[in-house]
User: Which sequence fits this backbone?
């Protein structure tokens, strides 16, 4: 069977489960960048990122025989990545782990409306992007993760909640905090 | 189709187009080519190993192995049994072709008991062993021993030696099954002064039994080799304490009086005793011994046996002159 852009992630994964390595090639090419950046921006140690990245894909490869479509493939993939990342945090950073516990069940508080951040053509877009990355790095891990899953995984709040194993409200809260802080930071920087 | 990464679509009003745009302008880091190659190679290896067929094989490995062992064992047992039966049949056919051979072989065995027992272990069983095989396996060695002992006694009876010389032969073996008829009966069957035709009939019958390999028809009717429930146990072998002349009256005790099931052991003895020639035991003896035996037979009026002995004597000692009146 020929695999291409029209094939869904789930079809590709099922094809790989049934022994078609070409399906995996397409699937990998489609998601390798997003997953790598997700891991890289959550864990800035380049060596650790490569190890984590390889582990996630190897876990996927090993689990292929038991794969069934129960959710979006990206949810499945980033769930594997999240679990591997938590393991990494547990070994290396207790503070990072606590970040995932702080906002559990926390109500979304009223955030300052900073949506009115106007575009500023005077600033170089590249410089703005780098500033955004700096702000992103300053976010707690859980909030940063929610934002990255939205941006790199293209996930909705529900999917973020499923991938990270929290309630929808928690996921929504984390995402809104992250976005609010980023907007505020960009407005101040401007 | 799945949503492509970074394309948005999160919905729920939780997206900010400006932040999305800014984030898209961030560097697009990707894994190294080496890492890509390693992961893709691992994925192909995993597919190449084909775990599903392997797991199927693993699932059937144990049952198939057990089935193979069972089939091989059954085949081996069947083969061994067939070979044993063929060997027995071969051994049964051999004495049928040469009627005088079994008795001579038996005499040779008596002369070399140790060797004979070894031969029985190493070579195919004899007709008597074939008959005995159908009995309980545990009794086989003792039965063979008792059979050899009976042959020895018959030989002694023929040569006129005192039967008391072998008292252990008279004692019934505790392990051996009790034989059906005492050797005195057999001796009387051989050396009775009854009609010539009766003796011949018995001898023929014994030969027939030997050639039939165990399906024995006794003089009183059909007897089976299988033990019969409720059948009376054969009596222990009586010591052959009487001479030939004393055994004569026993001839008048017809075997027909005994229960039919007692024939189980009897035919074995009869088929061995019947073809025994008058010159039995003299193979290794000098001519004088032959002549002594001849004189004794003549004296007793056993003309047929005497004639047989003379014929054999002439074959063995063609140049030896026979004394007058002995022929």
Assistant:
């Amino acid at each position: 069977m020929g695999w291409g852009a029209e094939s869904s992630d789930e079809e590709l994964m099922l094809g790989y489960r049934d022994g078609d390595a070409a399906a995996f090639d397409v699937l990998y090419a489609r998601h390798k960048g997003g997953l790598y950046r997700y891991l890289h921006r959550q864990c800035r140690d380049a060596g650790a990122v490569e190890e984590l990245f390889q582990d996630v894909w190897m876990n996927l490869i090993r689990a292929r025989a038991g794969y069934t479509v129960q959710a979006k493939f990206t949810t499945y993939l980033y769930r594997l990545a999240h679990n591997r990342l938590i393991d990494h945090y547990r070994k290396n950073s207790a503070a990072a782990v606590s970040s995932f516990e702080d906002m559990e069940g926390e109500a979304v508080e009223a955030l300052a409306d900073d949506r009115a951040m106007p575009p500023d053509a005077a600033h170089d877009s590249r410089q703005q992007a780098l500033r955004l990355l700096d702000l992103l790095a300053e976010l707690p891990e859980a909030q940063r993760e929610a934002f990255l899953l939205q941006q790199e995984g293209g996930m909705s709040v529900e999917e973020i909640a499923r991938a990270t194993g929290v309630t929808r409200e928690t996921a929504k809260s984390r995402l809104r905090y992250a976005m609010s802080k980023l907007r505020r930071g960009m407005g101040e920087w401007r | 189709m799945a949503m492509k990464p970074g394309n948005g679509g999160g919905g729920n009003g939780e997206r900010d187009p400006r932040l999305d745009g800014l984030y898209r302008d961030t560097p697009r880091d990707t894994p190294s080519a080496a890492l890509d190659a390693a992961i893709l190679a691992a994925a192909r290896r995993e597919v190449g190993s084909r775990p599903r067929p392997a797991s199927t094989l693993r699932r059937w490995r144990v049952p198939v192995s057990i089935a193979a062992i069972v089939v091989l064992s059954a085949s081996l047992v069947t083969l061994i049994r067939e070979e044993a039966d063929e060997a027995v049949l071969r051994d049964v056919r051999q004495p049928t072709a040469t009627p005088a051979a079994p008795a001579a072989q038996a005499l040779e065995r008596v002369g070399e008991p140790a060797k004979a027992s070894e031969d029985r272990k190493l070579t195919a069983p004899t007709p008597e062993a074939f008959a005995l095989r159908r009995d309980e396996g545990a009794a086989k060695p003792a039965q063979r021993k008792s059979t050899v002992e009976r042959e020895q006694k018959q030989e002694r009876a023929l040569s006129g030696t005192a039967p008391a010389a072998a008292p252990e032969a008279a004692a019934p073996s505790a392990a051996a099954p009790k034989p059906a008829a005492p050797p005195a009966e057999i001796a009387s069957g051989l050396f009775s002064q009854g009609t010539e035709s009766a003796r011949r009939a018995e001898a023929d019958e014994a030969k027939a039994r030997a050639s039939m390999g165990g399906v024995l028809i006794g003089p009183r009717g059909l007897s089976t080799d299988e033990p019969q429930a409720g059948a009376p146990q054969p009596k222990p072998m009586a010591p052959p304490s009487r001479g030939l002349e004393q055994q004569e009256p026993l001839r008048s005790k017809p075997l027909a009086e005994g229960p039919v099931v007692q024939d189980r052991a009897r035919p074995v003895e009869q088929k061995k005793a019947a073809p025994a020639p008058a010159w039995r035991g003299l193979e290794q003896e000098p001519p004088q011994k032959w002549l002594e035996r001849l004189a004794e037979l003549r004296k007793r009026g056993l003309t047929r046996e005497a004639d047989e002995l003379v014929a054999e004597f002439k074959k063995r000692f063609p140049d030896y002159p026979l004394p007058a009146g002995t022929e």
Notes: The longest strand of chain B covers residues 217-218. The interface with chain A takes residues 1-12, 14-16, 18-20, 22-23, 25-32, 35-36, 38-40, 42-44, 46-48, 50-52 of chain B (CB under 8 Å). The beta strands of chain B are 217-218, 221-222. Chain B has a mean pLDDT of 62.
